[in-house]
Design a protein that fits this description.
It is a single chain. The termini are far apart. The chain has 9 helices and 15 strands. It has a 7-stranded mixed β-sheet. It has a 6-stranded parallel β-sheet with strand order 12-11-8-13-14-15, with helices on both faces. It has helices at 6-24, 67-76, 173-183, 195-204, 222-231, 255-269, 285-295, 310-317, 342-351; strands at residues 28-38, 42-52, 97-102, 105-110, 116-122, 129-137, 143-149, 156-160, 167-168, 190-191, 211-218, 239-242, 274-280, 300-306, 336-339. Helix content is 29%, strand content 27%. The protein has 2 domains: 6-149, Immunoglobulin-like (Sandwich), CATH 2.60.40.10; 156-351, Rossmann fold, CATH 3.40.50. The chain is globular, with a radius of gyration of 20 Å.
Protein backbone atom coordinates (compact mmCIF):
# COMPACT_ATOMS: atom_id res chain seq x y z
CA UNK A 1 0.00 0.00 0.00
CA UNK A 2 1.37 3.42 -1.01
CA UNK A 3 2.38 5.84 1.72
CA UNK A 4 -0.31 8.51 2.33
CA UNK A 5 0.34 12.00 0.99
CA UNK A 6 2.00 14.45 3.39
CA UNK A 7 -1.23 16.45 3.49
CA UNK A 8 -3.12 13.48 4.90
CA UNK A 9 -0.41 12.79 7.47
CA UNK A 10 -0.46 16.41 8.61
CA UNK A 11 -4.25 16.43 8.80
CA UNK A 12 -4.27 13.24 10.86
CA UNK A 13 -1.69 14.66 13.26
CA UNK A 14 -3.69 17.88 13.59
CA UNK A 15 -6.94 16.02 14.30
CA UNK A 16 -5.30 13.74 16.87
CA UNK A 17 -3.83 16.73 18.68
CA UNK A 18 -6.96 18.87 18.53
CA UNK A 19 -9.22 15.97 19.52
CA UNK A 20 -7.07 15.22 22.57
CA UNK A 21 -7.00 18.90 23.54
CA UNK A 22 -10.74 19.41 23.20
CA UNK A 23 -11.58 16.19 25.03
CA UNK A 24 -9.24 17.29 27.79
CA UNK A 25 -11.29 20.46 28.12
CA UNK A 26 -14.49 18.51 28.49
CA UNK A 27 -15.81 18.54 24.93
CA UNK A 28 -18.05 15.60 24.12
CA UNK A 29 -19.08 13.75 20.98
CA UNK A 30 -22.31 14.40 19.14
CA UNK A 31 -23.59 13.11 15.81
CA UNK A 32 -25.03 14.77 12.73
CA UNK A 33 -26.93 12.64 10.23
CA UNK A 34 -27.17 13.17 6.47
CA UNK A 35 -29.73 11.67 4.15
CA UNK A 36 -28.65 8.29 2.84
CA UNK A 37 -29.98 6.02 0.13
CA UNK A 38 -30.09 2.48 -1.11
CA UNK A 39 -32.23 -0.28 -2.56
CA UNK A 40 -33.57 -3.58 -1.30
CA UNK A 41 -29.99 -4.85 -1.73
CA UNK A 42 -28.03 -2.25 0.25
CA UNK A 43 -28.23 1.00 2.18
CA UNK A 44 -25.61 3.73 2.37
CA UNK A 45 -25.69 5.57 5.71
CA UNK A 46 -24.07 9.02 5.94
CA UNK A 47 -23.26 11.27 8.87
CA UNK A 48 -20.52 12.86 10.94
CA UNK A 49 -19.24 12.67 14.50
CA UNK A 50 -18.19 16.01 16.01
CA UNK A 51 -16.81 17.27 19.29
CA UNK A 52 -19.10 19.75 21.00
CA UNK A 53 -18.42 22.20 23.82
CA UNK A 54 -21.62 21.31 25.61
CA UNK A 55 -24.21 18.60 25.26
CA UNK A 56 -27.51 20.23 24.34
CA UNK A 57 -30.62 18.26 23.37
CA UNK A 58 -30.30 17.35 19.72
CA UNK A 59 -33.83 18.52 18.98
CA UNK A 60 -32.89 22.04 20.08
CA UNK A 61 -29.82 22.53 17.89
CA UNK A 62 -30.42 23.27 14.22
CA UNK A 63 -26.85 22.24 13.32
CA UNK A 64 -27.60 18.76 14.68
CA UNK A 65 -30.64 18.15 12.52
CA UNK A 66 -30.54 15.64 9.73
CA UNK A 67 -31.25 17.03 6.28
CA UNK A 68 -34.77 15.64 6.26
CA UNK A 69 -35.52 16.99 9.75
CA UNK A 70 -34.17 20.39 8.76
CA UNK A 71 -36.46 20.33 5.73
CA UNK A 72 -39.49 19.55 7.87
CA UNK A 73 -38.73 22.37 10.28
CA UNK A 74 -38.15 24.79 7.43
CA UNK A 75 -41.52 23.84 5.96
CA UNK A 76 -43.20 24.51 9.30
CA UNK A 77 -41.53 27.87 9.54
CA UNK A 78 -39.92 27.39 12.94
CA UNK A 79 -36.28 27.28 11.91
CA UNK A 80 -34.14 30.22 12.97
CA UNK A 81 -32.19 31.04 9.83
CA UNK A 82 -28.52 31.55 10.36
CA UNK A 83 -25.39 32.56 8.59
CA UNK A 84 -23.53 29.65 7.05
CA UNK A 85 -20.24 30.20 8.90
CA UNK A 86 -21.70 28.48 11.96
CA UNK A 87 -21.75 25.20 10.04
CA UNK A 88 -17.97 25.38 9.60
CA UNK A 89 -17.07 25.99 13.24
CA UNK A 90 -16.82 22.26 13.88
CA UNK A 91 -14.27 19.76 15.12
CA UNK A 92 -14.50 16.32 13.53
CA UNK A 93 -13.99 13.42 15.92
CA UNK A 94 -11.73 10.84 14.26
CA UNK A 95 -11.77 7.12 14.90
CA UNK A 96 -14.91 7.09 17.05
CA UNK A 97 -16.74 3.73 17.26
CA UNK A 98 -20.20 4.01 15.69
CA UNK A 99 -23.10 1.59 15.56
CA UNK A 100 -25.85 1.75 12.93
CA UNK A 101 -29.15 0.08 13.76
CA UNK A 102 -31.70 -0.97 11.15
CA UNK A 103 -34.62 -2.71 12.80
CA UNK A 104 -33.10 -5.34 15.08
CA UNK A 105 -29.76 -5.45 13.23
CA UNK A 106 -26.74 -3.43 14.34
CA UNK A 107 -23.55 -2.81 12.33
CA UNK A 108 -20.32 -1.35 13.71
CA UNK A 109 -18.04 1.21 12.05
CA UNK A 110 -15.51 3.97 12.80
CA UNK A 111 -15.64 7.66 11.89
CA UNK A 112 -12.89 8.64 9.44
CA UNK A 113 -10.04 11.15 9.92
CA UNK A 114 -12.50 14.08 9.65
CA UNK A 115 -15.27 12.44 11.65
CA UNK A 116 -17.35 11.37 8.66
CA UNK A 117 -19.49 8.23 8.57
CA UNK A 118 -20.02 6.54 5.20
CA UNK A 119 -21.14 2.96 5.66
CA UNK A 120 -22.73 0.53 3.20
CA UNK A 121 -24.84 -2.25 4.70
CA UNK A 122 -26.03 -5.18 2.60
CA UNK A 123 -29.55 -6.62 2.66
CA UNK A 124 -31.06 -3.98 4.98
CA UNK A 125 -34.55 -5.50 4.81
CA UNK A 126 -36.19 -2.18 3.86
CA UNK A 127 -38.95 -1.71 1.32
CA UNK A 128 -38.85 1.15 -1.23
CA UNK A 129 -39.63 4.55 0.27
CA UNK A 130 -38.34 6.71 3.11
CA UNK A 131 -37.06 5.11 6.29
CA UNK A 132 -35.00 6.03 9.34
CA UNK A 133 -31.99 4.25 10.76
CA UNK A 134 -30.30 4.96 14.07
CA UNK A 135 -26.68 6.14 14.35
CA UNK A 136 -25.06 5.86 17.77
CA UNK A 137 -21.53 7.17 18.26
CA UNK A 138 -19.57 6.31 21.38
CA UNK A 139 -20.31 8.92 24.04
CA UNK A 140 -23.10 10.57 22.05
CA UNK A 141 -26.87 10.39 22.03
CA UNK A 142 -28.38 8.29 19.21
CA UNK A 143 -29.68 10.21 16.18
CA UNK A 144 -32.05 9.23 13.40
CA UNK A 145 -30.86 9.31 9.80
CA UNK A 146 -33.24 9.33 6.86
CA UNK A 147 -32.56 6.97 3.96
CA UNK A 148 -34.32 6.78 0.60
CA UNK A 149 -34.76 3.20 -0.57
CA UNK A 150 -35.15 3.00 -4.34
CA UNK A 151 -36.87 0.02 -5.90
CA UNK A 152 -34.35 -2.14 -7.72
CA UNK A 153 -36.73 -2.15 -10.73
CA UNK A 154 -36.73 1.66 -11.05
CA UNK A 155 -35.77 2.79 -14.55
CA UNK A 156 -35.57 6.60 -14.32
CA UNK A 157 -33.67 9.04 -12.10
CA UNK A 158 -32.40 12.63 -11.87
CA UNK A 159 -28.99 13.97 -10.88
CA UNK A 160 -28.63 17.73 -10.45
CA UNK A 161 -25.78 20.07 -9.71
CA UNK A 162 -26.56 22.83 -7.19
CA UNK A 163 -24.49 26.04 -7.61
CA UNK A 164 -25.54 28.00 -10.72
CA UNK A 165 -27.92 25.18 -11.66
CA UNK A 166 -30.61 25.54 -9.00
CA UNK A 167 -29.06 28.35 -6.93
CA UNK A 168 -27.87 31.61 -8.47
CA UNK A 169 -25.08 33.24 -6.49
CA UNK A 170 -24.25 36.32 -8.64
CA UNK A 171 -20.73 36.50 -7.26
CA UNK A 172 -17.26 35.89 -8.71
CA UNK A 173 -16.53 32.16 -8.48
CA UNK A 174 -13.50 32.49 -6.14
CA UNK A 175 -15.65 34.30 -3.54
CA UNK A 176 -18.85 32.26 -3.82
CA UNK A 177 -17.98 29.59 -1.28
CA UNK A 178 -16.53 32.03 1.25
CA UNK A 179 -19.36 34.54 0.92
CA UNK A 180 -22.23 32.08 0.96
CA UNK A 181 -20.67 29.99 3.69
CA UNK A 182 -19.29 32.53 6.10
CA UNK A 183 -21.21 35.76 5.52
CA UNK A 184 -24.43 35.73 3.58
CA UNK A 185 -27.77 35.00 5.22
CA UNK A 186 -29.10 31.78 3.75
CA UNK A 187 -32.48 33.32 2.82
CA UNK A 188 -30.72 35.81 0.52
CA UNK A 189 -29.72 33.21 -2.05
CA UNK A 190 -31.62 33.22 -5.33
CA UNK A 191 -33.38 30.29 -6.95
CA UNK A 192 -33.01 29.61 -10.67
CA UNK A 193 -36.51 29.99 -12.18
CA UNK A 194 -38.34 26.85 -13.21
CA UNK A 195 -35.91 24.28 -11.92
CA UNK A 196 -38.06 23.08 -9.02
CA UNK A 197 -41.21 22.75 -11.18
CA UNK A 198 -39.18 20.86 -13.79
CA UNK A 199 -37.90 18.36 -11.24
CA UNK A 200 -41.35 17.91 -9.69
CA UNK A 201 -42.90 17.33 -13.11
CA UNK A 202 -40.33 14.74 -14.17
CA UNK A 203 -40.57 12.83 -10.90
CA UNK A 204 -44.38 12.93 -10.94
CA UNK A 205 -44.28 11.27 -14.37
CA UNK A 206 -42.01 8.53 -13.04
CA UNK A 207 -43.43 7.40 -9.66
CA UNK A 208 -40.71 6.12 -7.37
CA UNK A 209 -37.91 7.79 -9.33
CA UNK A 210 -35.14 9.37 -7.21
CA UNK A 211 -33.33 12.68 -7.40
CA UNK A 212 -29.77 13.16 -6.20
CA UNK A 213 -28.15 16.56 -5.65
CA UNK A 214 -24.50 16.29 -6.66
CA UNK A 215 -22.22 19.12 -5.56
CA UNK A 216 -18.57 19.94 -4.97
CA UNK A 217 -19.64 21.82 -1.85
CA UNK A 218 -18.67 20.71 1.65
CA UNK A 219 -20.89 18.45 3.74
CA UNK A 220 -21.07 21.21 6.35
CA UNK A 221 -23.44 23.15 4.09
CA UNK A 222 -25.91 20.29 3.56
CA UNK A 223 -28.49 21.37 6.19
CA UNK A 224 -28.44 24.96 4.88
CA UNK A 225 -28.85 23.82 1.28
CA UNK A 226 -31.62 21.43 2.30
CA UNK A 227 -33.58 24.28 3.89
CA UNK A 228 -33.12 26.39 0.76
CA UNK A 229 -34.28 23.60 -1.55
CA UNK A 230 -37.28 22.80 0.62
CA UNK A 231 -38.26 26.46 0.88
CA UNK A 232 -38.34 26.76 -2.90
CA UNK A 233 -40.26 23.56 -3.57
CA UNK A 234 -37.51 21.22 -4.74
CA UNK A 235 -38.24 17.52 -4.24
CA UNK A 236 -36.28 15.87 -1.41
CA UNK A 237 -33.35 13.66 -2.21
CA UNK A 238 -29.93 12.62 -0.94
CA UNK A 239 -27.05 15.04 -1.36
CA UNK A 240 -23.66 13.84 -2.53
CA UNK A 241 -21.23 16.42 -1.17
CA UNK A 242 -17.52 16.27 -0.38
CA UNK A 243 -14.94 17.10 2.27
CA UNK A 244 -12.70 20.02 1.32
CA UNK A 245 -9.69 18.74 3.25
CA UNK A 246 -6.56 16.86 2.14
CA UNK A 247 -6.65 13.34 0.72
CA UNK A 248 -4.25 10.40 0.54
CA UNK A 249 -3.03 11.71 -2.81
CA UNK A 250 -2.96 15.51 -2.54
CA UNK A 251 -3.57 18.71 -0.61
CA UNK A 252 -7.10 19.26 -1.91
CA UNK A 253 -9.89 17.14 -3.30
CA UNK A 254 -10.81 17.50 -6.96
CA UNK A 255 -14.39 18.62 -7.47
CA UNK A 256 -14.44 17.17 -10.98
CA UNK A 257 -13.17 13.82 -9.75
CA UNK A 258 -15.77 13.84 -6.98
CA UNK A 259 -18.61 14.29 -9.47
CA UNK A 260 -17.24 11.72 -11.89
CA UNK A 261 -16.75 9.11 -9.18
CA UNK A 262 -20.24 9.77 -7.77
CA UNK A 263 -21.84 9.28 -11.19
CA UNK A 264 -20.02 6.01 -11.80
CA UNK A 265 -20.94 4.82 -8.33
CA UNK A 266 -24.63 5.52 -8.97
CA UNK A 267 -24.35 3.65 -12.27
CA UNK A 268 -22.94 0.62 -10.45
CA UNK A 269 -25.45 0.78 -7.61
CA UNK A 270 -28.50 1.27 -9.83
CA UNK A 271 -27.63 -0.39 -13.17
CA UNK A 272 -31.25 -0.37 -14.40
CA UNK A 273 -31.73 3.39 -14.02
CA UNK A 274 -31.27 5.75 -16.96
CA UNK A 275 -30.38 9.18 -15.65
CA UNK A 276 -31.22 12.71 -16.70
CA UNK A 277 -28.13 14.73 -15.72
CA UNK A 278 -28.73 18.43 -15.03
CA UNK A 279 -25.97 21.01 -14.66
CA UNK A 280 -24.80 24.39 -15.98
CA UNK A 281 -22.26 25.67 -18.48
CA UNK A 282 -20.40 27.93 -16.04
CA UNK A 283 -17.71 25.43 -15.14
CA UNK A 284 -17.17 21.77 -15.95
CA UNK A 285 -20.59 20.07 -15.93
CA UNK A 286 -20.86 19.70 -19.74
CA UNK A 287 -17.50 17.93 -19.93
CA UNK A 288 -18.07 15.80 -16.83
CA UNK A 289 -21.50 14.70 -18.04
CA UNK A 290 -20.30 14.29 -21.63
CA UNK A 291 -17.39 12.10 -20.58
CA UNK A 292 -19.66 10.01 -18.37
CA UNK A 293 -22.17 9.59 -21.22
CA UNK A 294 -19.32 8.51 -23.49
CA UNK A 295 -18.21 5.90 -20.94
CA UNK A 296 -21.73 4.80 -19.92
CA UNK A 297 -24.20 5.61 -22.72
CA UNK A 298 -26.36 2.76 -21.43
CA UNK A 299 -27.30 4.66 -18.27
CA UNK A 300 -27.63 8.28 -19.48
CA UNK A 301 -31.02 9.31 -20.87
CA UNK A 302 -30.37 13.01 -21.48
CA UNK A 303 -28.06 15.83 -20.41
CA UNK A 304 -29.72 19.11 -19.46
CA UNK A 305 -27.50 22.20 -19.28
CA UNK A 306 -28.66 25.48 -17.79
CA UNK A 307 -27.06 28.27 -19.84
CA UNK A 308 -25.69 31.12 -17.75
CA UNK A 309 -26.17 34.71 -18.86
CA UNK A 310 -23.08 36.64 -20.08
CA UNK A 311 -22.90 38.40 -16.71
CA UNK A 312 -23.06 35.07 -14.85
CA UNK A 313 -20.37 33.66 -17.13
CA UNK A 314 -18.06 36.57 -16.26
CA UNK A 315 -18.64 35.96 -12.57
CA UNK A 316 -18.06 32.24 -13.03
CA UNK A 317 -14.77 32.31 -14.90
CA UNK A 318 -13.99 35.83 -16.11
CA UNK A 319 -15.25 35.83 -19.71
CA UNK A 320 -18.79 36.47 -21.06
CA UNK A 321 -19.11 33.11 -22.85
CA UNK A 322 -19.04 29.53 -21.68
CA UNK A 323 -15.55 28.14 -21.32
CA UNK A 324 -16.79 25.24 -23.47
CA UNK A 325 -16.16 27.52 -26.42
CA UNK A 326 -12.42 27.12 -25.87
CA UNK A 327 -12.37 23.48 -24.81
CA UNK A 328 -12.03 20.42 -27.05
CA UNK A 329 -15.37 19.26 -28.32
CA UNK A 330 -16.77 16.29 -26.43
CA UNK A 331 -18.36 13.59 -28.55
CA UNK A 332 -21.95 13.36 -27.37
CA UNK A 333 -23.56 9.96 -27.15
CA UNK A 334 -26.90 11.18 -25.76
CA UNK A 335 -29.13 14.20 -26.45
CA UNK A 336 -28.00 17.48 -24.85
CA UNK A 337 -30.63 20.11 -24.04
CA UNK A 338 -29.70 23.73 -23.30
CA UNK A 339 -31.82 26.54 -21.91
CA UNK A 340 -31.49 29.49 -19.49
CA UNK A 341 -34.04 28.22 -16.95
CA UNK A 342 -36.03 25.19 -15.91
CA UNK A 343 -39.18 26.11 -17.82
CA UNK A 344 -37.37 26.22 -21.15
CA UNK A 345 -35.21 23.24 -20.25
CA UNK A 346 -38.29 21.10 -19.63
CA UNK A 347 -39.62 22.06 -23.07
CA UNK A 348 -36.26 21.06 -24.55
CA UNK A 349 -36.41 17.69 -22.80
CA UNK A 350 -39.89 17.14 -24.18
CA UNK A 351 -38.74 18.15 -27.66
CA UNK A 352 -36.16 15.34 -27.74
CA UNK A 353 -38.69 12.87 -26.35
CA UNK A 354 -37.21 12.60 -22.85
CA UNK A 355 -38.77 13.31 -19.48
CA UNK A 356 -42.29 12.49 -20.72
CA UNK A 357 -42.67 9.06 -19.24
CA UNK A 358 -41.02 7.30 -22.18
CA UNK A 359 -37.72 6.44 -20.54
CA UNK A 360 -36.37 3.25 -22.02
Amino acid sequence: MARPHAAALLEDAFHRRSNALLRGRGWRTRTISHTGYGSQDFVRVLGRVLLSRRAEPLSMRESDLSEAEASIRALRGNVDEQRGWRAFVTAGAMGVPVSITIGDRTTGALSDRSGYIDVVISDPGLEPGWHTVTITAEGAEPVQAWVRIIDRETRFGLVSDIDDTVISTSLPRPFIAAWNTFVRHEAARHVVPGMAPMFRTLLAEHPGAPIFYLSTGAWNTAPTLTRFLKRHGFPPGPMLMTDWGPTNTGWFRSGQDHKTEALHRLAREFPRIRWVLVGDDGQHDPKIYGDFARDRPDVVETIGIRELSPAEQVLSHGIPVSNEEFAPRVQRHVPVCRAPDGYALLRQLRAVGRGDGSAR
